Amino acid sequence: GQCPHARVAVWPMDTVLGSPAAALLAGAIAVLLLPQGLAVQSEGLWALREYLRRSLKLLTEVFTQGPFFEFFVFCARKCGRGRLASPCRPPHSLQAQAVSAAELVICWKARAPLDGNPFHEERYVCAWRHAKDPDTEDESSVAAVWREHEVLDDECGCDEADRDRWGMLLSGLPEGACLRLRLCAQNRHGRGEWSEEVEIDMPTGLEAAAARRSGARALACSRVVVARGGRLCLQCRHAQPATSSVTYADVVCPPLFARECPHGPFCARCHKAMSAQVLPSCICRALIGTWREVA
C-alpha cells in the first residue's frame, strides 16, 4: 500500500504559465517562430520580430565569447574524444625557415570547418622529401618518397594573436639538400587534402655557422612550388584542386610589366575580388577585358 506520509510535490502549472516572465518568453518565442509571410503583413509585428532576432544574435555572440562557453567546449572535446569533430580541410599559407643545418621552423594556417563546428579538433601530418628533377627521375626513385611525421600536441603551438596560425620545429633533416614539404590535417574522419607544397634549400654546416656569426635569424626561407598536376592561383599562390575549375583573363592591351604573364590561373575567391574592382587588372598590370573558365 501507499505510505500515508508520502507526498508528491506538484508545481502548479497555472503559476508557471501565469507569471509575467513566462508569458513574455512564450510570446517572444511565438513571434520568432512566426512565418515571414505572416510577419510582413503587420509593420509593428515585423519590427518586433527583427528586434528580437537582433537581440538573440547579440546574446548568442556574447555567450560564445565568454569563459563559460570556452570551458563548455573544452569539456565537450575531452568527453567526445574527437567524435564531435567535422571533416578536415587542407591547411594553407605554409611557410618554412631554416634555423640550423638540420632544423626547420614550419608555420601554417588552419582552415575552419565549413559548418562552423566549435567542437572541431584536428592534428597535423608533415611530409617532406628531396626535390627531384622530373626530367631525370621517375616517381619510383628514392627522392620521390615522402617521409611523414605525425605532429604531436606538445610539438606544435598556435599564435596568441592569431589562433588559426600554428607552428612547429622539424629536426633531423639532411644538410645542404633541397627539400619539398607539405602538410595535412587529420582526425576521426580521416585525413584531409594536402596543402600547397613549398621548397627550401637547407644550408650546410659551414653556411649555418657563418650565418649565425653574422647574426642572421633565418638561414633560408621557403618558396611555393607547383606540385605535379597541381595549379597555383596567380594572386594568392594557393594550390587549387585538380578537379576544380580556374579562371584565366583575356587582356585588352599588352601589359606594361611581365609580358610573359599567362594572366592566370585565378581561384574563385581572387576572381571575385578582382571582378569587384572598377578597373580589374592582372598581376602584370594589364587591363582585363573578359574572363574564361578552364576546367
Overview of this protein structure:
This protein has 295 residues and is an alpha+beta fold. The protein has 3 domains: 16-65, no CATH class; 92-225, Immunoglobulin-like (Sandwich), CATH 2.60.40; 231-294, no CATH class. It has 7 helices and 15 strands. It has helices at 13-18, 20-32, 36-39, 43-64, 67-80, 205-214, 268-275, and strands at residues 92-98, 104-109, 123-130, 147-151, 156-158, 165-170, 178-187, 190-191, 197-201, 220-221, 223-225, 231-232, 239-240, 246-251, 288-294. Strands 3, 4, 7, 8, 9 and 11 form a 6-stranded antiparallel β-sheet that branches. Strand 7 (178-187) and strand 8 (190-191) form a beta hairpin. The protein is extended, with a radius of gyration of 28 Å. The chain starts with 12 loop residues before the first helix and ends with a strand. The relative contact order is 0.10. Mean pLDDT is 76; it is low at 13-17.
Instruction: Report the span from N to C terminus.
Output: 80 Å
Low-confidence stretches: 13-17
Q: What is the name of the CATH topology of the largest domain?
A: Immunoglobulin-like
| Shape by Cα distribution | extended
> How much beta, percentage-wise?
25-35%
Report the sheet with the most strands, covering strand number, pairing sense and barrel closure: 6 strands, antiparallel
User: Number of helix segments?
Assistant: 7
- Strand and helix order: HHHHHEEEEEEEEEHEEEEEHE
What does this entry show, briefly?
This protein has 295 residues and is α+β, with helices and mostly antiparallel strands. The protein has seven helices and 15 strands. This is Fibronectin type-III domain-containing protein.
